[in-house]
């Protein structure tokens, strides 16, 4: 098997072929699926190995003291041979992984072959294809938790033990110094505990990440903003706890901790930083300094770790293993999110290059995972990294209508959207005849007939579908009926305009396409109107062609729904994003000129605010922030497109601008926002009248719908979803 090792004398890193470990009693043999690089602890070890002998001695004065003692006891020659022999040996790296049980040792009855487990320990959870792990250093992974997330179990336990040492209470305020991997996890654990958090780190990107993950404020160690935030949150008293999650030789973290703490506050050391405590500062506040020892009680105790002797829960509530299980449970329930921390996933065969990139600074990362060959299916990663098929479709051209013949339209549904956003643009339009309106209640049909001039009003859908004079059917009903009504209209040979969404499930989408194939009728349009907005079309034209990948950011300030809204009936009408999200995915894809190839979705606790990241074939990305917790006075839709030194900015379909070699700013529209409904309907009517291509290619409608549905799949799995077959 293969294992990552390092020669501490020369600094050489290599992937070495080593014998497979035996499966001893009291443990299990685990085949690794993912292992996590601790970008703090491991990189420190890697950097030390690359130092000169003098540098190594300076970095480890504790080891130098042992050498001096050995010289006094055994003499220089014997000590030299002992030290050189130890230095000139391969040592392992790694201590946090997730894998599949391949063999069970004697005395183990809590897992079986094939179970997925998270493993800990710098002697047992190594960067290796196979590891023997004793009972108290592994725990089963909860159902539904992705193996790549479970690989964070050990570092999560370290952060969890540190938080336990701080004894946080609801409503307290904490300061986290150092926002690397451990610090980011500490932030989330504190937020989950009801604690308000201020973070400190010199890296602005890490500060921004911590704020996204729940910190109230973050900043540089020397910034006045940090002190102001602490003063505001604590009423000037200082924080209740400080967590030292920083490394390095500076004493600044310890001094900052004293300055920011309240009287008799708690300071917890989790990382490995310099600890020259300023006596006056710590004495005057009587600060309680605590140390957090790795994963929790049991660490470094061979009776616990190797012999498998557990501590009674009545005396030691949280042991190493119980901390590991607790952290995995928090991950599985969505209380902690590690996916935003994953900066890079490398194949295990590329381990040496990955470490070198981290050491050289070419790879800036909070967390890096090794993915092991051939383990995706065995570890359940196939379910965790799903693939959604995008059905292939082929467009056709219908014969043109005789000149002078009006296009006869029927409406199925006459609710608010139909009567306010569609029918006003069609009533009285030259070359259009409003033939029939169909509703479930007679009165609403009669009202629509009277107001918009339909020739007939009925509650009989079959009569409309069987009417040869009707050219096109508009489906403007509740979401749950869209797919079925679209299928029926297509099979009846009608052109169809269906409001979004086209479908609420993959099966419904497949049913629509089956109707297209069976009938040979692909005359379908979905109400994705924003690409038809005159303002956005002009902005896209001014932006011009692009040569490199683009970044698109779309903020949708959706707001909260009113009590009783049928959008809240998710069991029957689908999620709110399933109903509306296609608008924004279609707009992004139109601006980028392609369909997405993968979808990654995240949601805040309570499923209120949603982040959807789309990746496109040329490397372009689009991030859609669909939020319900924003201010009602803020514009609903704002968009930025960045590429090739240019920026396109759209402000809620009221104003647009392009920054680049030539700047363009639209005039503020004097009337209501034009989101493209009129132009969209004109294009649809023209296509029906002339028999020409529909306004949006069918394959694009299918790809957008598949991507919208993939958001649900991605939220369930916690990993990006590949859109197989996307153009």
Automatic annotation (TrEMBL):
Names of required cofactors: Zn(2+)
Residues of the Alcohol dehydrogenase-like C-terminal domain: 182-300
Limits of the Gfo/Idh/MocA-like oxidoreductase N-terminal domain: 408-528
Keyword Nucleotide-binding in annotation: no
Top-level lineage group: Bacteria
SUPFAM superfamilies per record: Glyceraldehyde-3-phosphate dehydrogenase-like, C-terminal domain (SSF55347), GroES-like (SSF50129), NAD(P)-binding Rossmann-fold domains (SSF51735)
Gene Ontology MF annotations: metal ion binding; nucleotide binding; oxidoreductase activity
Keywords, sorted A to Z: Metal-binding, Oxidoreductase, Zinc
Keyword Zinc: yes
Domain called GFO/IDH/MocA-like oxidoreductase: residue spans: 561-630
Family to which the UniProt record says this protein belongs: Belongs to the zinc-containing alcohol dehydrogenase family.
PANTHER family: D-GULOSIDE 3-DEHYDROGENASE, NAD-DEPENDENT ALCOHOL DEHYDROGENASE
Name of the molecule in the record: Oxidoreductase
Source organism (scientific name): Streptomyces viridochromogenes
């Amino acid at each position: 098997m293969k294992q990552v090792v390092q020669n501490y004398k020369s600094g050489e890193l290599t992937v070495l072929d080593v014998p497979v470990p035996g499966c001893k009693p009291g443990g299990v043999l685990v085949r690794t699926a993912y292992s996590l690089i601790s970008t703090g602890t491991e990189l420190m070890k890697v950097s030390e190995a690359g130092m000169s002998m003098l540098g190594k001695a300076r970095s480890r004065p504790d080891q130098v003291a042992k050498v001096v003692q050995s010289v006094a006891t055994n003499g220089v020659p014997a000590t030299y041979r002992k030290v050189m022999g130890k230095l000139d040996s391969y040592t392992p790296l790694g201590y946090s992984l997730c894998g599949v049980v391949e063999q069970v040792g004697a005395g183990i009855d809590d897992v079986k072959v094939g179970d997925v487990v998270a493993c800990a320990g710098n002697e047992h959870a190594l960067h290796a294809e196979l590891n023997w792990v004793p009972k108290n250093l592994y725990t089963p992974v909860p159902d539904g938790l992705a193996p790549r997330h479970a690989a964070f179990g050990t570092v999560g336990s370290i952060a969890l033990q540190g938080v336990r040492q701080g004894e946080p209470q609801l409503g307290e305020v904490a300061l986290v110094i150092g926002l690397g991997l451990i610090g980011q996890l500490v932030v989330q654990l504190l937020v989950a505990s009801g604690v308000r958090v201020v973070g400190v780190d010199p890296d602005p990107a890490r500060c921004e990440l911590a704020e996204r993950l729940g910190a109230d404020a973050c900043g540089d160690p020397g910034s006045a903003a940090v002190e102001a935030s602490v003063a505001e949150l604590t009423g000037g008293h200082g924080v209740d706890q400080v967590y030292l999650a920083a490394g390095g030789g500076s004493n600044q973290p310890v001094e900052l901790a004293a300055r920011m703490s309240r009287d008799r506050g708690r300071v917890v050391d989790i990382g490995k930083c310099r600890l020259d405590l300023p006596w006056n500062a710590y004495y005057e506040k009587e600060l309680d300094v605590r140390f957090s020892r790795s994963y929790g009680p049991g660490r470094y105790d061979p009776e616990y770790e190797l012999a498998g002797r557990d501590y009674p829960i009545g005396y030691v509530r949280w042991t190493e293993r119980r901390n590991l299980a607790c952290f995995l449970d928090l991950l599985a329930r969505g209380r902690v999110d590690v996916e935003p921390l994953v900066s890079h996933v490398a194949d295990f065969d590329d381990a040496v290059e990955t470490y070198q990139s981290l050491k050289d600074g070419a790879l800036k990362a909070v967390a890096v995972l090794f993915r092991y060959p051939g383990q995706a299916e065995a570890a359940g990663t196939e379910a965790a990294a799903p693939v959604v098929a995008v059905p292939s479709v082929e467009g056709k051209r219908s014969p043109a209508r005789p000149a002078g013949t009006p296009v006869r339209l029927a409406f199925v549904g006459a609710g608010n959207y139909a009567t306010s956003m569609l029918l006003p643009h069609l009533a009285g339009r030259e070359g259009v005849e409003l033939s029939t309106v169909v509703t479930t209640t007679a009165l609403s049909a009669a009202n629509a007939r009277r107001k918009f001039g339909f020739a007939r009003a009925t509650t009989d859908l079959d009569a409309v579908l069987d009417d040869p004079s009707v050219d096109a059917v508009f489906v403007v009903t509740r979401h749950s009926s869209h797919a079925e009504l679209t299928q029926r209209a297509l099979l009846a040979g009608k052109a169809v305009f269906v409001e979004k969404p086209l479908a609420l499930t993959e099966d419904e989408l497949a049913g629509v396409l089956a109707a297209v194939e069976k009938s040979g009728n692909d005359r379908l349009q979905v109400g994705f109107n924003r690409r038809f907005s005159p303002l956005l079309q002009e902005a896209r034209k001014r932006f011009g062609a692009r040569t490199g990948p683009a970044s698109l950011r779309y903020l949708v300030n959706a707001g909260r729904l009113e009590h009783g809204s049928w959008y809240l009936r998710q069991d029957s009408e689908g999620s709110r994003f399933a109903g509306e999200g296609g608008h924004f995915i279609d707009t992004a894809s139109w601006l980028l000129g392609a369909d997405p190839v993968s979808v990654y979705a995240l949601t805040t606790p309570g499923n209120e605010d949603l982040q959807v990241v789309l990746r496109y074939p040329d490397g372009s990305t689009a991030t859609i922030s669909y939020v319900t917790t924003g201010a009602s006075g803020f514009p609903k839709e704002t968009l930025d497109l960045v590429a090739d030194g240019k920026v396109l900015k759209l402000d809620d379909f009221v104003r647009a601008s392009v920054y680049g070699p030539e700047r363009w700013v639209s005039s503020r529209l004097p009337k209501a926002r034009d989101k493209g409904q009129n132009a969209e309907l004109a294009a649809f009517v023209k296509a029906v009248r002339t028999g020409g291509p529909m306004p949006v290619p069918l394959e694009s409608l299918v790809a957008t719908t598949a991507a919208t549905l993939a958001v649900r799949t991605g939220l369930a799995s916690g990993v990006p979803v590949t859109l197989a077959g996307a153009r």
